[in-house]
Amino acid sequence: MEAHGAGLRRVMLLSFCVAGIWAAYIYQGVLQETLSTKKFGEEGKRFEHLAFLNLAQNVVCLVWSYIMIKLWSNGGSGGAPWWTYWSAGITNTIGPAMGIEALKYISYPAQVLAKSSKMIPVMLMGSLVYGIRYSLPEYLCTFLVAGGVSMFALLKTSSKTISKLANPNAPLGYGLCFLNLAFDGFTNATQDSITARYPKTNAWDIMLGMNLWGTIYNIVYMFGLPHGSGFEAVQFCKQHPEAAWDILMYCLCGAVGQNFIFLTISRFGSLANTTITTTRKFVSIVVSSVLSGNPLSPKQWGCVSMVFGGLSYQIYLKWRKLQRVQKKKKT
């Protein structure tokens, strides 16, 4: 009876994590799309300063992680010093900025799909630079994802979707997304290196360090450089409080979503988190298509299914590998 109760609590906690991640990031996606396509005020002005979203997100997540450390940290030391995150902070500033900037040129569903193909640069770098050999099923996953994204990019986008974009330019938009993935790969590798050197580093330490440097770099970029548009972004928010509110909600969604991701990884492992976030991306495309007026053709839905079929198969392969490892440990 006790075991049954513990199992039920675990299922309820997992359901809570799924609901939290889906709600936070799907709503954040809606807000991101709104800020990149909506025309504010009587003049119908667009919010052109999308890089400002990264600065706002960094500031909110910096404050959030500091509060979480003060509330939940046991006061132990041994985590990575704040200055060790400077290099990862650079790529973590440039990468997401490119991903958000891409929304000026391609639709939100196209951006989500392109950013779902993270395995492609990882496998290319692994095989070409480090000589890593991958299995046939792993290459099949990559082929499905790469083929789906490529076919989606080549298919004609509806005129209704194109009319909402600030400057339609598919090659530039997809190029920015893939550069985002490349920078994300370096960021993840650097974070892994830091946690290997400082094993006592927890998720909140990483969040604090990354967002501290992100805040510094983005302030310099937005307010310190001649072409920076930070003051214009602040002025736009003063003139259009609705945009300021959307930005605040966008940032809070990101911070809350991080909470649920950390909770999921700590209680259920990274595989469960990957599964939840992958399905969330698919739902985000459905929500964007149905609610935000980005209609997809049957062929485009076929490409979306192809990409998420490849991602689902990848998750299944990881699950099988995990089962084999656990079996070996038992024997």
From TrEMBL:
Domain of life according to the entry: Eukaryota
Record key words, sorted: Antiport, Endoplasmic reticulum, Membrane, Transmembrane, Transmembrane helix, Transport
Predominant place of localization: endoplasmic reticulum
Regions that span the bilayer: 12-30, 50-69, 136-155, 247-265
MF (Gene Ontology): antiporter activity; UDP-galactose transmembrane transporter activity; UDP-glucose transmembrane transporter activity
Transmembrane helix as UniProt keyword: yes
Pfam families given in the database record: UAA
UniProt KW Transport keyword: yes
GO cellular component, one term: Golgi membrane
Membrane protein topology class: Multi-pass membrane protein
Subcellular location: Endoplasmic reticulum membrane
UniProt family annotation: Belongs to the nucleotide-sugar transporter family. UDP-galactose:UMP antiporter (TC 2.A.7.11) subfamily.
Name of the protein in its database record: Sugar phosphate transporter domain-containing protein
Organism: Microthlaspi erraticum
